[in-house]
Amino acid sequence: MPASEALDPGQALGVLDAELARGLALIGGAAGRDALDEAESALLGRKSPFSGIQRGLGGLSEKDRRRIGQRTNEVRGALRSAIASRRETLEAERERALLEADRIDVTLPGRRLRPGSLHPLTLLQNRIVDIFTGMGYRVVEGPEVETEWYNFDALNIPPDHPARKTTDTLYLSTPGEPRVLRTETSAMQIRTMESQPPPVYVIAPGRVFRNEATDATHLAVFHQVEGLAVDEDITFADLKGTLETFYRALLGQERRIRLTPSFFPFVEPGAQVEVTCFVCGGVGCRTCGNGWIEGMGCGMVHPRVLENVGYDPERYSGFAFGGGIDRMAMLRYGFPDIRMLLENDVRFLAQFEGAT
Ligand SMILES: [Zn+2]
What we know:
By secondary structure, the chain is an alpha+beta fold. The protein folds into two domains: 9-101; 120-352, BirA Bifunctional Protein, domain 2. It is 41% helix and 18% strand. The chain has helices at 9-29, 33-44, 49-56, 62-101, 120-134, 148-151, 187-195, 236-251, 303-308, 326-333, 340-343, 346-349, and strands at residues 138-139, 145-147, 171-172, 179-181, 200-209, 221-231, 257-262, 267-276, 292-301, 317-324. Strand 7 (257-262) and strand 8 (267-276) form a beta hairpin. Helix 1 (9-29) runs antiparallel to helix 2 (33-44) and helix 2 (33-44) runs antiparallel to helix 4. The longest helix is centred in the first third of the chain and has 40 residues, at 62-101. The two termini are 87 Å apart. Zinc ion binds at residues 277, 279-280, 284-285, 287-288, 291. Residues 277, 279-280, 284-285, 287-288, 291 line the site of zinc ion.
């Protein structure tokens, strides 16, 4: 109702009563906060019939103005208090619904936190390192990119050795001296001896690389642990005793080892270690076949290798041993495919939670 239009007092009272009735119904029926806001605006907003009457009050006689004005105040008060009360109710209902949704059932079993676990290779490497540091060895680590000198020549591997072919070794196409992704951790023998005089007792864990197709038992990137001891009066018996102590600590005190002759250019004589199976105890089973599990390669450090680093082979002798630990992890933890070590499948890795 435009303000300029004269207000009919009788009609205005009727409108106020109607608006009060309509308003209480609207407010009571508002199902949510938005609906209530809408009702408030329709009843008391600028375009509402109620506001029209308010604006028209000024054009009435004093008597009518007081009468209609008083009724206007009553109706507004009634509507406002109905809105406030409805708002409170809606708020309480909403709160109750939220609480219900967030209700905590303290009788439910707790959800277990998964703290993660060490990778099986890390577990095994840590264990091996622990055993050797317990025997007085120091851990050394070195570069994964090596020169041919450190990776081959200094280790007495001749230039025509098949291991140096690109079918076996990954060469980098960098300028200058040819560089390779190290094919074994043995280069650390050389780097260590170059950097210090004897005695040397070191263990070198690390990644190595071969130009090899991967299958269930082979990886192109795998992990080795290399050991080196150089001192006065080191004999083959020291080597055997050290390896026996190591394998017993790793796989059980009842393990036995045997050494069979083998050839590696950087040792003389060289041998291959085998250890009695930790599953069947050496009688033969699916894990081992004939009761023996192939272990590391080893031998007495070749005098030429000692000469290459400036040690006197007449005065010092030493032994070295080394081998992959990926296959050992397969045996120790009993999984069928070596590639599982690289897949990062959490269903596989989670099984090592708490393992040693
Ligand atoms: Zn066995």
